[in-house]
C-alpha cells in the first residue's frame, strides 16, 4: 500500500523508485492523441492562442519544461509564472489564453488564488493538472487531467513531477495535432517514446550506486551550482531545489550560458558544479561552459547520455545514461538529480521526508 515503506528507507526513496510505474499509470492505455484526454469535448483547446502556466515549487519547473515542448511542437507562445507573483501583479489579461494550473495537491493556496485571479480577469479557459482527483483546483477548472502518481508522502515532490511532465507532453501533442503539426507517423513515434519511458526511468534508477559515491563528496560541501540549457535548465533548477530542500546545502541553478555573467566568480575548487548534459543540439555550447568551470578549478559532476564523448577525467565525474531520449529527455534526466539530493541528505542525516520548515501542501498564501 501507499503508506508501507517496503524495502525503502524513506518515502522519498520509495517514490523515486515508483516513477516507472507512476508514469505508466499516467499514460494508461492511451492509443491516440485526443483532446478528450483533458476532458475537452467543446473545442476549448483548439481555440487557444496563448498558454499561461501557473504553479509553485517543483510543479512550476514542470511548467517551465513544458513551455519548450508546447512552443516547439504546437507553435503556441507560452508563459510560465510563479503563482504568487502572477496573483499580485497588474498583468494584461487575454481571454484567448489557456491558463494551466499544475499542482500535485491541487490545494496550494498561491496557485489556487492565481487561477481564481485569472478567472476574475476573464481568462476562463482553465486546465488543472493535479494528482488529487477531488482537489479544489480540479473542481474549479473546466478542463482537467489527473496524474496517476499515487499518494505522495515525501515533502519533496518526485513522482508527481515526472507524471506532470507526461501530462504536459501529452498536452503539447494535442495542441500540435489540432494545429496540423502532428502527422500520423509522428503521433505513433511520440506515443512509442512515451511507452518506452518506464524502461528509460529504470535505466536512470540503475545509476543509484554511482550516485551514492558522489553523495559522499557532497556531504562536505556548503554550496553547489547546477547548470543546464534549454529544456534541461528547469531540470537543473529542480536538482538545485531538491538539494537545498532536503540536504540544506545551498544550491543555485543557472542556464549554463549565464555562467560568465556572475556565478563564475564563485567557482573555486570548493564549488561542485552539477551539469545536465544530454546529447542535444546545445551540447557543444554546454561543453565550452564546462571548460570555463574546469579552468577555474571547479569540480564537475556531469549527467550525460549516449554519444556525447564526455568522459571522466581529473576534476570531471560523469554518469552516463544509456540512451538519449530526445524531447522526453528531461523526464529521465531529473531522476539522477533526485537521487543525488536524496543520498546527500541521507549521508548528512537530515529528516528527508519532513525537511525543517517545509510543508507538503502549503494552504496559506
Ligand atoms: C510545497 C512542496 C513542494 C511542492 C510545492 C507545490 O512547497 O514542498 O514539493 O512542489 O509545495 O505544491 P503543489 O501541490 O501545488 O504541486
Automatic annotation (TrEMBL):
EC number: 2.6.1.16
Subcellular location: Cytoplasm
Annotated GO MF terms: carbohydrate derivative binding; glutamine-fructose-6-phosphate transaminase (isomerizing) activity
Annotated SIS domain residues: 41-181, 214-355
GO cellular component, one term: cytosol
Record key words, sorted: Aminotransferase, Cytoplasm, Glutamine amidotransferase, Repeat, Transferase
Residues at the catalytic site: 360 (for fru-6p isomerization activity)
UniProt key word Cytoplasm: yes
Superkingdom of the organism of origin: Bacteria
Reported function: Catalyzes the first step in hexosamine metabolism, converting fructose-6P into glucosamine-6P using glutamine as a nitrogen source.
Name the record gives this protein: Glutamine--fructose-6-phosphate aminotransferase [isomerizing]
Originating species: Thiomonas delicata
Source lineage: Bacteria, Pseudomonadati, Pseudomonadota, Betaproteobacteria, Burkholderiales
Region of the whole protein represented: 238 to 602 of 602
Amino acid at each position: 500500500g501507499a503508506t508501507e515503506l517496503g524495502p525503502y528507507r524513506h518515502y522519498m526513496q520509495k517514490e523515486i523508485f515508483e516513477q516507472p510505474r507512476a508514469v505508466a499509470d499516467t499514460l494508461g492505455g492511451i492509443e491516440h492523441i485526443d483532446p478528450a484526454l483533458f476532458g475537452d469535448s467543446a473545442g476549448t483547446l483548439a481555440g487557444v492562442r496563448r498558454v499561461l502556466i501557473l504553479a509553485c515549487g517543483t510543479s512550476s519547473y514542470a511548467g517551465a519544461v513544458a513551455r519548450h515542448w508546447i512552443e516547439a511542437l504546437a507553435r503556441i507562445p507560452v508563459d510560465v509564472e510563479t503563482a504568487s507573483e502572477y496573483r499580485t501583479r497588474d498583468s494584461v489579461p487575454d481571454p484567448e489564453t489557456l491558463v494551466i494550473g499544475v499542482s500535485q495537491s491541487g490545494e496550494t493556496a498561491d496557485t489556487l488564488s492565481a487561477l481564481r485571479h485569472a478567472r476574475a480577469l476573464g481568462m476562463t479557459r482553465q486546465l488543472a493538472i493535479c494528482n488529487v482527483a477531488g482537489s479544489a483546483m480540479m473542481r474549479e477548472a473546466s478542463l482537467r487531467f489527473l496524474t496517476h502518481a499515487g499518494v505522495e508522502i515525501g515533502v519533496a515532490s518526485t513522482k508527481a513531477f515526472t507524471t506532470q511532465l507526461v501530462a504536459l507532453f501529452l498536452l503539447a501533442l494535442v495542441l500540435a495535432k489540432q494545429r496540423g503539426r502532428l502527422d500520423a507517423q509522428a503521433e505513433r513515434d511520440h506515443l512509442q517514446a512515451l511507452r518506452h519511458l518506464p524502461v528509460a526511468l529504470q535505466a536512470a534508477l540503475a545509476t543509484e550506486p554511482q550516485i551514492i559515491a558522489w553523495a559522499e563528496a557532497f556531504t562536505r560541501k556548503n554550496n553547489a551550482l547546477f547548470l543546464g540549457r534549454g529544456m534541461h535548465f528547469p531540470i537543473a533548477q529542480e536538482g538545485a531545489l531538491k538539494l537545498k530542500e532536503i540536504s540544506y546545502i545551498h544550491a543555485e541553478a543557472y542556464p549554463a550560458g549565464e555562467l560568465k555573467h556572475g556565478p563564475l566568480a564563485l567557482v573555486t575548487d570548493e564549488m561542485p558544479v552539477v551539469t545536465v548534459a544530454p546529447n542535444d543540439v546545445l551540447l557543444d555550447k554546454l561543453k565550452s561552459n564546462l571548460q570555463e568551470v574546469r579552468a577555474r578549478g571547479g569540480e564537475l559532476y556531469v549527467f550525460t547520455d549516449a554519444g556525447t564523448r564526455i568522459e571522466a577525467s581529473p576534476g570531471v565525474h560523469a554518469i552516463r545514461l544509456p540512451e538519449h531520449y530526445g524531447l522526453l529527455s528531461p523526464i529521465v534526466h531529473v531522476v539522477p538529480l533526485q537521487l543525488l539530493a536524496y543520498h546527500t541528505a541521507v549521508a548528512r542525516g537530515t529528516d528527508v521526508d519532513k525537511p525543517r520548515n517545509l510543508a507538503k501542501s502549503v494552504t496559506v498564501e
